[in-house]
């Protein structure tokens, strides 16, 4: 059996896990949810729910991963001692592969706009026209480039691939966001955006839709339920204090979402000041892909010669956010192929990347029918249910003395800690109920 990889440092793990959590959802989903759900009131609810709901599930994944030292399928199989655990692990691998299949398409679009800003710098108008014309060929080419980039990093393994690149990419991501915040905040109209983002509307705080939105954002932004944190946890040193390191990951993820809001919302109001439409006919702020590919490029066009450099920086930032998430997703099925199926890492990476790229191509060729369907199937249905099952495994199936023994590896006094007094019953009773209610509300 091959020697398993391990993160060489705490900062390497935190940046890799936070990179997994910090994806496009933090940057294009979170800010507009804040602005349309009562500003800072939403941020407060989100922060509360991130620690009330997402952190305990994150801890379940990290503890299961580090204790089992294995991929999702073997880890859950060992805990349950039955076929049900392995089946759940395979379901997680399939879900994360489907998420990566649509994510790679969107990551490809980020590369398209990044390439467009690069060719605009040197005045290649015909190349820009080709890049910005929606076509199946363009989408497949850039999806392939995105998957190749992801596979290139994952082939390097834990230390020389995932950790090495996360430690480079995550600080770059934060610096780019901060530089753009400074630039955007100096533009006319930005102050209106700051007040939309930071002034709380407390009348909205108990609105069920706001609570569902905040809960969903907290859960999905930490990429929970699909085994990415479980697999990263399995590469973590036994010396680390798990509750502390889990809190670090949660804080970095939340922090990036909050500073992304400080960039996106003021930028939208600068766009409004410059004559760009930022509201839907119903009066809500435009969000998602329309925000990233219509509103912001229109803004960059209105700010003169410097716009092309701002666009270049912004889409570099978006591409980095996409890649730091995609490497963790690809690692989930790769770890299974290497450990359970005995494949060499390089072969496992190429095989899984090829399968996921084929799935992406199928979605691209049947875009209207499949794109929205696959997103809903994975993120609205499969992911919360997997999170629910993980809580049941951690709270009801797994022996409590085994969990405590794992926590004591990194903290000899774990039994006396506040974490141990709250987490075991919390993940047993509270988390499953909250997740089940959230799932019921979002589906019905």
What does this structure look like?
This protein has one domain: Amino acid/polyamine transporter I (Up-down Bundle), CATH 1.20.1740. Helix content is 81%, strand content 0%. The protein has 18 helices and no strands. The termini are far apart. It comes from Alteromonas naphthalenivorans. It is a multi-pass membrane protein.
Keywords for this entry:
Amino acid/polyamine transporter I, Na/ntran_symport, 444 residues, Sodium-dependent symporter family protein, 18 helices, mainly alpha, transport, 0% strand, globular
Q: Summed up, what is this model?
A:
The protein is about 80% helix and about 0% strand. The chain has about 450 residues and is mainly α.
Overall pLDDT, averaged? 90
The strand count comes to: 0
Instruction: Look at the structure and name the CATH superfamily.
Output: Amino acid/polyamine transporter I
State the CATH class.
Mainly Alpha
Bin the helical content.
over 70%
Strand content: under 5%
Let me know the largest β-sheet.
none
Structural class call reads mainly alpha
Low-confidence stretches: none
Organism: Alteromonas naphthalenivorans
Keywords: Membrane, Transmembrane, Transmembrane helix, Transport
Pfam families: SNF
Transmembrane segments: 12-31, 43-64, 90-115, 135-158, 170-190, 210-233, 245-272, 303-327, 348-375, 381-398, 425-443
């Amino acid at each position: 059996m091959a020697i398993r990889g391990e993160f060489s440092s705490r900062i390497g793990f935190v940046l890799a896990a936070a990179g997994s959590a910090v994806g496009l959802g933090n940057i294009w989903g979170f800010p507009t949810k804040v602005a349309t759900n009562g500003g800072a009131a939403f941020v407060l609810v989100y922060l509360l729910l991130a620690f009330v709901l997402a952190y305990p599930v994150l801890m379940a994944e990290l503890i299961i991963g580090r204790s089992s030292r294995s991929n999702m399928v073997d880890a859950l199989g060992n805990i349950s001692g039955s076929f049900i655990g392995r089946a759940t692990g395979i379901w997680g691998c399939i879900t994360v592969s489907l998420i990566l299949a649509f994510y790679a398409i969107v990551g490809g679009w980020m590369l398209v706009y990044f390439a467009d800003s690069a060719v605009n710098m040197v005045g290649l108008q015909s190349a820009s026209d080709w890049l910005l014309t929606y076509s199946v060929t363009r989408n497949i080419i850039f999806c392939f480039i995105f998957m190749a980039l992801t596979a290139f990093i994952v082939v390097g393994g834990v230390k020389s691939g995932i950790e090495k690149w996360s430690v480079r990419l995550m600080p770059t991501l934060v610096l780019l966001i901060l530089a753009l915040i400074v630039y955007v905040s100096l533009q006319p109209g930005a102050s209106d955006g700051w007040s939309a983002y930071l002034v709380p509307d407390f009348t909205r705080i108990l609105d069920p839709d706001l609570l569902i939105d905040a809960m969903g954002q907290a859960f999905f932004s930490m990429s929970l339920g699909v085994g990415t944190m479980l697999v990263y946890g399995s590469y973590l040193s036994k010396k680390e204090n798990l509750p502390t390191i889990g809190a670090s990951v949660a804080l970095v993820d939340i922090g990036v979402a909050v500073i992304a809001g400080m960039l996106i919302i003021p930028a939208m109001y600068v766009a409004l000041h410059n004559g760009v439409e930022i509201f839907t006919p119903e009066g809500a702020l435009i969000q998602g892909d329309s925000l990233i590919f219509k509103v912001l490029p229109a803004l960059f066009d209105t700010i003169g010669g410097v716009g092309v450099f701002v666009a270049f920086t912004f889409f570099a930032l978006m591409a980095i956010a996409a890649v730091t998430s995609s490497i963790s997703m690809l690692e989930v099925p790769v770890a299974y192929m290497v450990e359970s199926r005995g494949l060499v890492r390089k072969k496992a990476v190429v095989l899984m990347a090829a399968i996921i790229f084929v799935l992406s191509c199928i979605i691209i060729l049947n875009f209207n029918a499949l794109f929205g369907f696959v997103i809903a199937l994975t993120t609205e249905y499969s992911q919360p249910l997997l999170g629910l099952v993980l809580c049941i495994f951690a709270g009801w199936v797994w022996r409590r003395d085994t969990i405590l023994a794992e926590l004591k590896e990194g903290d000899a006094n774990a039994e006396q800690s506040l974490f141990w007094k709250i987490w075991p019953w919390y993940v047993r009773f509270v988390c499953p109920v909250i997740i089940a209610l959230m799932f019921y509300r979002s589906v019905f």
